[in-house]
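Attaching the record inline, Q. Sequence:
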Amino acid sequence: MLDTAFFRRWLTLAAAAVDREADRLTELDSAIGDADHGSNLKRGFAAVTAALEKEPPATPGTVLTLAGRQLISSVGGASGPLYGTLLRRTGKALGEAAEVTPGELAEALRTGVAAVAQLGGAAAGDKTMLDALEPAVAALTDSADSFAAAATAAEEGAVATVPLQARKGRASYLGERSIGHQDPGATSSALLIAALARAAEQPTGPATEGTAS
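Structure, as predicted:
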């Protein structure tokens, strides 16, 4: 079973990963976007960490809904609404349960990813975060062991955006010039799923930045 501490650990590890990879995310975004993806997400996940420490949520669902609200309010551009929607809708799907199974989290994440697709009007192959998220949720089962497979699928999906032409978002304005660049949103989404897998590897104890490396 996955309890509230697990979800806090997941987001703490995600924040550490975003902090560590912020410059890389911004470098990717400088090629096909506004060159602010890393700095925006770093600020957003720092706000998430601070909010979780200030008023710790009581359930897994409220951990994610709080995180989603923080991202929406603190991250500029499209990333805030998209990541915020992902976490809020996932959290709402989990309901008020004190613990959830890996299968319940998998289903909730599918709901969250579907909400992101609807909000952005995108699909897999459009060179967006969905290219990492959709293969990740497809790999999830009712076992926490599947989180590692999801992380691998997300990373492979992010790398697979390199030869794609962007059809949604700021990068789509570049047309064929968007080909040859890895999508920053898919890359940051892969970090989020990798943090989930790392959280599953650490069933007890606090998460730290060092454990996220």
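The mean pLDDT is 93. The two ends are 25 Å apart (CA to CA).

More tomorrow.
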